Amino acid sequence: MKRKNKVIIILISLIIFFSGTFFILFLTEQLQSQVIDVGQPIVTYQDQDSSTDNLQHLIHKAQKSVVQINVETDYSERSGSGFLYNSRGDIVTNAHVIEDATTIQVTMSNAETYPAAIVGIGEEKDIAVIRVPQLINYQPIELEATENYLPGAEILAVGSPLGFQNTVSVGIISGVDRSFDINGYIYENVYQISANITHGNSGGPLIDRQTGKVIGINSAGIEESDIAFSIPIPAIIDQITDWSTSITNSQLTFPTRVNNIPLNTNELLEEATYLIHYFIDSLAINDYINAYTLLGSTLQNEMDYPSFRSNYLHLINLALLNNEIVDSTGETVLINSTIEFQDEQNRNEKKSFNILFTIGYENDQVKVLQIEAD
């Protein structure tokens, strides 16, 4: 009897063991085959460096299509901004920037300068279109021609305040449907923005920080405040398109063709310093093609693009520490620049090196004529 009871106990134990093992295996297989929904996490993480990189790329891309506009009249000189909006070389700006102009000069982000002709100019609306035939097939900036934005939208204002080319202000749309008159121009239902606008910003683009599209034309600002105004693109897109498509290059009248060479050494020094900053910024953002276009023809003949790119490809986190003017002849400028960087293979160590730039004119355009690195 006792022996029979032991057999029963052993059988029951085996049944329990195999049943438990089977159940565990079955449960494991089911869990592996299912997607477990954990719901919305309480804590989210954002890569700040990635966000910063995206903003830098957006700004760098936009700056290529933003121009500085220098105007002379019979009585004064003024400066403003504009942006390339189609492949015809047409640039949108404010009417008050170019009114009564005897000469109009457009300077690109790479310091190239061209004369411009008036395509159309508003009498009541503060908008205008000018054209630079040399910019045909240049990449324009994309417009948001249909959507009207609401308060709170994050924006960038790009322009040349006080002559400082390609300056960026960050803010939001702080109000909509603002209407008023300034100097004979009627502003209806315009955006109020918190980005700072001052002399030289007029005509520059208001950019949606999320999409990179132009949503307005920066037109007026209140001094020493965070109140400025921008004309929405949907309100003027039909007018600027009509102007652009109704005139051919043979019908253009240039107020006066401009000699692009600066009248004094100080202007060349300013353009040379700006060009070096733009050159280093292009390398820092990995835009090697744009940096290569800043080189003069002699340098490009000595070094093809793949070779140029390979010189800088392993460098990361480039930063321009300082510029020192070594010499200036009136036709060229020698500037010694100190560059800080990290090597791709050793990100923990910051290094620096010096570059001696020779900056001068080639075909009336400021170019990097020579580079000597230590």
Automatic annotation (TrEMBL):
Family matches, as InterPro entries: Chloro_Bact_Ser_Proteases, Peptidase_S1_PA, Peptidase_S1C
Record keywords, A-Z: Hydrolase, Membrane, Protease, Serine protease, Transmembrane, Transmembrane helix
Domain of life: Bacteria
Pfam family, one: Trypsin_2
Source species: Amphibacillus indicireducens
UniProt KW Transmembrane keyword: yes
Membrane-traversing stretches: 7-27
Name of this chain's protein: Trypsin-like peptidase domain-containing protein
The keyword Ribonucleoprotein appears for this protein: no
PANTHER family in the cross-refs: PEPTIDASE S12 (PTHR43343), PROTEASE DO-LIKE 8, CHLOROPLASTIC (PTHR43343:SF3)
